[in-house]
Specification:
elongated; 2 domains; alpha/beta; 472 residues; 17 strands; five-stranded parallel β-sheet; 20 helices
């Protein structure tokens, strides 16, 4: 929402007041503005100065009001012409030396200015960020004193670079063995499916999860702006998203509900929103607070987070590929053919139940990842299976086919034998409707990987194989 900054300078005792529900950071602008005006050679009036932030019922947060407050005071005292700022939106933090600095949410301010048809006056250092917004007229300001020569010229918009795939932290060719798990990652990248990896400690679950980000294609133009906007609002550097790199977020298992889904005062996006259009990796899944895990259920299903507070509702996007990793039991060796599990049966059940059936039901693929043979790990021979670059090409081909080559819908593309096979498996495993639908989506992605317009029984069989682990 647009905030209008008004200033009134009248005779009386020297007072500098700010009204309109400002928070502490906005109230502190009084000292920053006063010092910045004097440093830059302007006069601060020795009289009663009242600044109003309208609309008054809306709470105002952050240091971005420094620059517009300073401009309002300068215009009210006649030191700058008010007409020069018609159809100009201003945002920026002022240093005591009158330099103009970036604030969180510069992209949001830029989008708002374009929507209203205004030019944006802000810190010159933000040019690389706000230039990602098409149609923006940006006037970069480095120092408040520069306004003596008039408004800065409109900065030239740099051409958007062709997005490049990010250099992955882990490449598939660096991982020995785990052929089934690698295939599972390719399927997850091609269809945006959620994956749960379980196995003993040190079996390679974390390595596999970190390799997934490298299989995804670069962000397209719409996705780049979406993801960069979220990172900008959160106070993070949006440049990697602007460059086309898909987010990869791996929060610690001590994260709170607000840390995962968002919250706070004022509300801030959580990890699931920061991973929008990318990968959210939850390592040691059962160690997360149960309330935090259950709070993920609705965002994982719908791809959006809705935070309802007393002053209103805030919606953050959260369309992610969720990858989780866990040990099968507290000691980590349940089901291991070489190590004996020392946990009591009740302890294993309690440990696995921390995930919760509803969240587990939202996992498209659950894969057991066992330790590989040391001989294979230490071998100097080339790794088997596709490389990261080859897998990324496979994923891109499947995405292109899904977008343009195959018929829409799921059930209508099932062959008769595939339908019979799926119905039998669903009854035998007593699957929920959600689980059946997710299984069908995985089978559809497997068909896309083979450029098949119909879902064959072989695709259903492979999708069933990717649900090879069930909690006790």
């Amino acid at each position: 929402m647009r905030v209008e900054v008004q200033a009134d300078v009248s005779p009386g005792l020297p007072v500098f007041g700010i009204v309109g529900l400002p928070d502490v950071a906005v109230q502190e602008a009084r000292d920053r503005v006063r010092a910045a005006l004097r440093t830059s050679g302007y006069e601060f009036p020795n009289s009663r100065v009242i600044v109003n932030l309208a609309p008054a019922p809306l709470r105002k947060h952050g240091t971005g009001f420094d620059l517009p407050i300073a401009l309002a005071v300068l215009c009210a005292t006649g030191q700058l012409p008010a007409r020069a700022f018609d159809n100009v939106a201003a945002v920026g933090e002022l240093g005591l030396d009158a330099t103009v600095r970036e604030v969180p949410g510069m992209l949001a301010h830029a989008i708002g200015a374009v929507t209203r048809g205004d030019a944006l006056l802000g810190p010159a250092d933000a040019h690389d960020v706000v230039s990602a917004v098409p149609g923006l007229s940006f006037r970069g300001l480095q120092h408040l004193a520069a306004l003596r020569q008039g408004l800065p010229a409109v900065s030239a918009t740099t051409e958007a670079e062709v997005p490049q795939a990010c250099d992955p932290q882990v490449r598939l060719e660096d991982i020995a063995g785990h052929d089934i798990a690698k295939r599972c990652l390719i399927v997850a990248a091609a269809g945006g499916h959620h994956v749960l990896l379980t196995g003993p400690p040190g079996s390679g679950k974390t390595l596999l999860a970190r390799a997934l980000a490298g299989l995804l294609p670069p962000l397209n133009e719409r996705e780049r702006l979406e993801s960069a906007l979220i990172h900008s609002v959160a106070g993070l550097d949006p440049r990697p998203c602007i460059e086309g790199r898909r987010p990869f977020r791996a929060p610690h298992h001590s994260s709170t509900v607000a840390g995962l889904v968002g919250g706070g005062t004022p509300p801030r996006p959580g990890e699931i929103s920061l991973a929008h259009n990318g990968v959210l990796f939850l390592d040691e899944l059962p160690e997360f607070p149960p309330a935090a895990l259950q709070a993920l259920r609705q965002p994982v299903e719908e791809g959006v987070v809705t935070l309802v507070r007393a002053h209103g509702a805030v919606r953050y996007p959260g369309r992610v590929t969720l990858v989780s990793a866990m040990n099968p039991c507290p000691c980590g060796y349940a089901g291991d053919p070489q190590r004996v599990c020392t946990c009591a049966s009740g302890a294993v059940t309690r440990y696995q139940s921390r995930i919760g059936g509803p969240l587990f039901d939202r996992m498209d693929m659950t894969i057991r990842v066992d330790r590989i043979d040391p001989e294979l790990l230490l071998s100097d021979s080339p790794r088997q299976g596709p490389t990261t670059d080859e897998a990324r090409s496979i994923v891109s081909g499947a995405l292109s086919f899904a977008a343009a080559g195959r018929p829409q819908g799921l059930r209508g593309t099932l062959t008769r034998t595939a339908r019979v096979q799926l119905e039998g498996a669903a009854r035998t495993a007593r699957m929920s409707g959600r689980a059946v639908t997710r299984l069908l989506r995985v089978a559809r992605t497997l068909a896309d990987l083979e450029r098949s317009t119909s879902i064959q029984d072989v695709h259903v069989a492979e999708a069933l194989a990717y649900r090879s682990w069930e909690p006790s």
